[in-house]
Request: fold
Amino acid sequence: MKAISYNMKPQDIVILLKLISLENEMWQQKPLAESLKMSQSEISECVARCKYSGLMDSSGKKVMRNALFNFLESGIAYVYPQRPGTVVRGIATAHSAEPLSKSIASQEIYVWPYAKGKVKGHSIAPLYVTVPDAALADAKLYELLALTDALRAGKVREKQGAIAELKKRFF
Reply:
């Protein structure tokens, strides 16, 4: 039997954000795994890690929104930092995607590398390899992931905007 490591993984953040986008505590592992293009075992292991860390309640069904918000606001840039890379074709993220793109005008575009993407910009590695596909299938998740990337890679103005937008979506 494989022992579960309780160290957080980047896909845990993706899963927690997906659960927030669902706005439903009655979710099931199989449809969640399918929507994120992950395995059910990845979902199960994430739930165990998130319960251990206090990012989910003891039932493993409810995201502890305050704890996750605090982690995103104060810790994500240190635990999963990103620096803009080379110019590639992809999907807009961070301040280059909605909702921040409505209020922040920037010449510097950030994208998740994606062969079918229609935007060229500096590459930002997504938290998990399936993020572009999962985000394209769920507009609420896309916004949450883009806002999270603004915290991971943005400057002060982008981070402040992301925090304000995340508050609206979390509480």
In short: The chain is about 50% helix and 10% strand. The two ends are 39 Å apart (CA to CA).
